[in-house]
Amino acid sequence: MIEIKQVAVLGAGVMGRAIAAHFANAGLTTYLFDRVPENELNRNILAANAKESLLREKPLPLFSSSLVSSIHIGNFEDDFHKLAEVDWIIEAVVEDESIKQQLLAKVEQVWNGKSILSSNTSGISVHKIINDRSTSFQQHFLGTHFFNPPRYMKLLELIPTKHTLPAITQEVQQFAEERLGKGVVIGRDTPNFIANRIGTYGIQVIFQAMEKWPFSPAMVDELTGPLLGRPKSATFRTLDLVGLDTYAHVVKNVREHSSDQAEITAFQTPVAIQKLIDEGALGEKTKKGFYRKN
Ligand code: NAD
Asked: How far apart are CA 46 and CA 17, in angstroms?
């Protein structure tokens, strides 16, 4: 059994930063790394900006600013050697199979042979992400799908592969339940796993309904929020929170991997979402999506 004391989160986007904060709040030594931005003098600017925004984000009292401040910032080029010291490395970069594969190939070069490895993918095949790596690396790897925002969402889906050592899955499950306050569900490696497959289908149906009836996003949020016992953020605010580019990756993943024609039709990227993406409006991360955030 590995005692999880130090963790590294790779990718300081919407999820990576919030997962890192959740780990820091749980008292773990936490590293947060991102890529080196092009033409940028500060090589750690992406991760540093992410931490800054966490400290500013509401509701602030739920995070201890001193704990969030303790997160160690780094980048994929200069700081990878630190990964040899940590007990769990979680990848949370953009939802793209080949980018995740390339990053894990780099991680393998510094891996200490013991630590837990995981991906926060929303639904790309966990087997495919890890396929080309060595057997022992694969044995320590699984999908760990946190939901957004990880501070509040209790669900954590674990997706072991056929190579994952049962002891690794058990270790993560126990740690997530006892230290991270999660309710763990172990799922199979199907496109978008369980909750996302169902959740995105519901959103797709709403877009189809909006083609027939003149609902605005605010009306949909009103109807699909507290009235149905769901949070106020409901449909469109959730899309803005998730990121419209990430949502588009997620529906594409089902479209490309389902063998069910009805499902392939149902998971077309909604025109309104594609239009916003083309305009660079990706939701809260660009301060503009279905709603504007000033
Ligand atoms: P994001 O777009 O906010 O951040 C993506 C991160 O990937 C950025 O920090 C970026 O610098 C990095 N990145 C982009 N291109 C890269 C490259 N070529 N090489 C290395 N790094 C690169 O994405 P996110 O919403 O944080 O999603 C991260 C992961 O978590 C994805 O797999 C996503 O599917 C999953 N996820 C997202 C949500 C959500 O609500 N957004 C929920 C659950 C899981």
From this structure: 10
Q: Determine, yes or no, domain membership for 218.
A: yes
Question: Does the complex come out with an ipTM higher than 0.95?
Answer: yes
Asked if 202 and 181 sit in the same domain, the reply is no
Of 106, 74, 95, 53, the closest CA to residue 8 belongs to 74
Residue 55 counted as domain residue: yes
- Domain presence at residue 1: no
Residue 211's domain is classified under what CATH number? Answer: 1.10.1040.10
Q: Are residues 36 and 161 in the same domain?
A: yes
Residues 219 and 153 in one domain: no
List the pLDDT tens digit at each of the 294 positions of the chain.
789 999 999 999 999 999 999 999 999 999 999 999 998 889 999 999 999 988 887 766 567 888 888 999 999 999 999 999 999 999 999 999 999 999 999 999 999 999 999 999 999 999 999 999 999 999 999 999 999 999 889 999 999 999 999 999 999 999 999 999 999 999 999 999 999 999 999 999 999 999 999 999 999 999 998 888 887 778 999 999 999 999 999 999 999 999 999 999 999 999 999 999 999 999 999 999 999 866
The strand pairing partners of 157, in sequence order, are 145, 185
Dist. CA 157–CA 193, nearest whole Å: 8
Cα–Cα distance measured from residue 5 to residue 164, given in angstroms and rounded to the nearest whole number: 21
| Residues whose beta carbon lies within 6 Å of some atom of ligand 1 | 11-16, 34-35, 46, 92-95, 99, 103, 120-122, 146-148, 242-243, 246, 285
* pTM confidence score: 0.95
Whether residues 206 and 269 fall in one domain: yes
Q: How far apart are CA 54 and CA 70, in angstroms?
A: 12
- Which residues form the domain of 56? 6-186
Mutate to test the pocket of ligand 1, among 10, 15, 76, 102 (most ligand atoms within 8 A of CB): 15
